[in-house]
Design brief:
By secondary structure, the chain is α+β, with helices and mostly antiparallel strands. Helix content is 45%, strand content 7%. The protein is built from seven helices and four strands. The chain has helices at residues 3-35, 46-51, 61-67, 77-93, 104-111, 117-138, 203-206, and strands spanning 144-146, 160-163, 172-175, 200-202. It has a four-stranded antiparallel beta sheet with strand order 1-2-3-4. It binds zinc ion (ZN) (2 copies). One zinc ion (ZN) binds at residues 153, 181-182, 186, 188, 190, 193, 199.
């Protein structure tokens, strides 16, 4: 897979994790409101909210509308942010194929293997931006773990990170020094190289059985 596609896939999974955390946070606020004194003051359309299954069905516009409307005293800030991020994802996904009602992030992610590298690079940029907004709200650090060994690209030791968002078979490794691929002849060992792209490896390529996380 082209490194731009690997970056896009990692960005999509990172955002997925962040949105799920944001949704969980918003749900907690609903539970708190229902349990607290304020529950009597304002009606919460928890029916609409409760009908929604977990992330993966945000394509339903009524659910999106409900997200911004239910909280006591005005929109819950986390739910409002989630709705806003989902609307931006809807925009980004509107030209992509996908089953009706499929959530936009899933459509984007499923389309990544067929993206041209420069489109994937733009997608990474957009997803990373949304991910940053969501994680800043939650004080949620990146999903990553340091691993042992030297970077095949720049030889730095202790600089490699395993990116652990999403299913394990789609994890990737990046170098914390921000080293860039030199293109053809680069020592990084990637089957597909492109000069100037930040190094990224599928985890399985760089972490044969026995490699340790630190
Ligand atoms: Zn490196
Ligand atoms: Zn390289």
């Amino acid at each position: 897979m082209h490194p731009h596609l690997l970056h896009a896939r990692a960005a999509a999974w990172a955002l997925q994790t962040a949105l799920e955390a944001l949704e969980a946070h918003a749900m907690e606020a609903v539970a708190d409101a229902l349990a607290g004194d304020r529950s009597g003051e304002v009606s919460i359309p928890s029916q609409a909210y409760g009908c929604r299954r977990q992330l993966g069905n945000h394509g339903d516009p009524t659910a999106n509308a409900a997200l911004g409307a239910w909280a006591p005293g005005g929109p819950n800030p986390d739910a409002a942010l989630l709705g806003d991020l989902l609307r931006q994802l809807d925009q980004a996904a509107q030209h992509l194929p996908g089953a009706p009602g499929m959530d936009p992030l899933t459509r984007i992610r499923q389309h990544i293997p067929r993206m041209r590298p420069h489109v994937a690079a733009k997608t990474t940029e957009a997803l990373t931006h949304l991910n940053k907004i969501a994680r800043e709200r939650l004080f949620l650090p990146p999903d990553r773990t340091p691993i042992t060994g030297a970077c095949p690209g720049c030889r730095a030791r202790g600089a490699l990170y395993l990116q652990t968002s999403g299913p394990e078979q789609e994890w990737s490794v990046v170098c914390g020094t921000g080293c860039l691929c030199a293109g053809q002849g680069c020592p990084c060992g990637m089957p597909v190289t492109e000069a100037g792209v930040g190094h990224i490896w599928p985890a399985a390529l760089l972490m044969p059985a026995g490699t340790r996380t630190t």
